[in-house]
Write a structure and sequence with these properties.
The protein is an alpha/beta fold and 261 residues long. It has 6 helices and 13 strands. The protein has a 7-stranded mixed sheet with strand order 6-11-8-9-10-5-13, with helices on both faces. Strands 2-1-3 form a 3-stranded antiparallel sheet, with helices on one face. A 3-stranded parallel sheet has the order 4-12-7, with helices on one face. A hairpin with an 8-residue loop joins strand 8 and strand 9. The radius of gyration is 18 Å and the shape is globular. The structure holds adenosine monophosphate. The site of adenosine monophosphate has 18 residues, from helix 5 and strand 11.
């Protein structure tokens, strides 16, 4: 009999300010250990409010797909990092002015008043129009993970390449689902964590290009952009990203710098 699957979500804040969040899609057997892990991560931030929710997922709705290969691009600073990101977006079919504007928008804060958004911008890859229904929030990719049987192999492969930060695993899983979404031709991301400068461009042609510097240390801005190719049904794409449960059933190659950066 197929195992039951659960969406497990954690949100921790202090007086309304977001501190830590996590989201997994796991089998019944994994729920307990994942909840403990989330609890440990959240309490490290000393929150004043912590919520963990567990919701059963309809197993028949789970879509399965492959994880892209991860390749690390060595760059010396964020300027060359952004230049590499720009080139990668062009190679994936995003129009040059659209790619440039997305990079600039993330760099200055894509939300109202230059705040960071909770979700991603959804951008017409040809015309540059913003397509997300609520631009302050953006589109959130949720309910994605790796098949339980691949969990250990993924951790081993990442650790072997020195990619031990939990953000990398989470970003790789999120990017896998985004890549599987109908009509999405590329994704650009860097973190809003001031201490974390790495980000990526992900596209079907070359996979997940990890770029170690996309901003300077101390910069609080970050964000995500999903590039949408007109001609697909926008509502279906958004529904897939926000609602459809997705599990990775095939790992990609992981070619990091082996921790040598
Ligand atoms: P992070 O890598 O977690 O620092 O996130 C960087 C940016 O990506 C955030 O500022 C949000 O704009 C966006 N983001 C975070 N989580 C998601 C998500 N699940 N779906 C879409 N966008 C997200």
């Amino acid at each position: 009999m197929e195992s039951r699957y659960y969406s497990v979500r954690m949100h921790a804040d202090r007086d309304g300010t977001h501190l830590s969040g996590a989201e997994r899609l796991v089998s019944e057997e994994q729920v307990e250990s994942v909840v403990i892990e989330m609890l440990q991560r959240a309490t490290g931030h000393a929150p004043s409010s912590l919520k963990i929710s567990i919701d059963e997922i309809d197993g028949s709705r789970i879509v399965r797909g492959a994880m892209p290969n991860l390749v690390e691009v060595p760059v010396d600073d964020y300027r060359s990092g952004r230049d590499r990101a720009f080139q990668a977006l062009l190679a994936s079919g995003v129009a040059p002015e659209v790619a440039q504007s997305a990079i600039e928008t993330i760099a200055r804060g894509a939300g109202p008043g230059h705040a960071n958004m909770r979700g991603a911008m959804l951008i017409d890859a040809r015309k540059g129009e913003r397509l997300e229904p609520v631009s302050a929030r953006g589109v959130r990719a949720t309910r994605m993970d790796v098949e339980p049987g691949l969990e250990d192999a993924l951790t081993r492969n990442l650790v072997r390449q020195g990619l031990i930060h939990h953000r990398i695993r989470e970003a790789l899983v999120l990017a896998s689902k985004v890549l599987a979404a109908p009509g999405i031709i590329a994704e650009l991301c860097w973190s809003d964590d001031p201490g974390y400068t790495a980000g990526y461009v992900c596209a079907p042609g070359f996979g997940y290009l990890r770029i170690p510097h996309l901003k300077e240390v101390g910069d609080p801005h970050g964000g995500r952009a999903f590039f949408f190719m007109p001609g697909f049904k926008l509502a279906e794409t958004i529904r897939f990203l926000e609602e459809t449960p997705f599990l990775i059933n095939k790992l990609g190659l992981i070619a990091g710098s082996g921790g040598k950066k």
